[in-house]
Amino acid sequence: MENVNSVIERVSGASVVEIERVMAELAQVRDMLRNEGQRVQREVSGYASLSQAAMTSMKIIGDSLVQWKSQSPQPALRKD
């Protein structure tokens, strides 16, 4: 009976160690995924800000061109 108990303890001990190892790996993967998620959020936020700045710049340029064109003298039409 002691021999059976010894085998059971060894097998269950190995299983517990393996389960703890897998749990530790899963915790590392969870932390890595959380960090990557935060990094991606920062990147998306940065791209959104950059896009907004580009749109604002394009509007300013467009408005300036409209104003510039309205102030420049129109070429005379040639009558041939």
Distance between the termini: 120 Å
Rg, rounded, reads 35 Å
Helix content: over 70%
Assembly annotation: single chain
What letter string, H or E per element, gives the SSE order? H
Number of separate strands: 0
CA-based shape: rod-shaped
Strand content: under 5%
Low-confidence sequence ranges: none
Mean pLDDT: 88
* Biggest sheet descriptor: none
* Helical run tally: 1
Which helices and strands, and how do they pair?
Blueprint: H1 2-71
Description:
The protein is mainly alpha-helical and 80 residues long. Helices cover 88% and strands 0% of the residues. The protein is built from one helix and no strands. The longest helix has 70 residues, at 2-71. The chain starts with a helix and ends in a 9-residue tail after the last helix.
Provide a compact summary of the structure:
This protein has 80 residues and is mainly alpha-helical.
Q: Characteristics of this structure?
A:
about 80 residues; mainly alpha; 1 helix; about 90% helix; about 0% strand
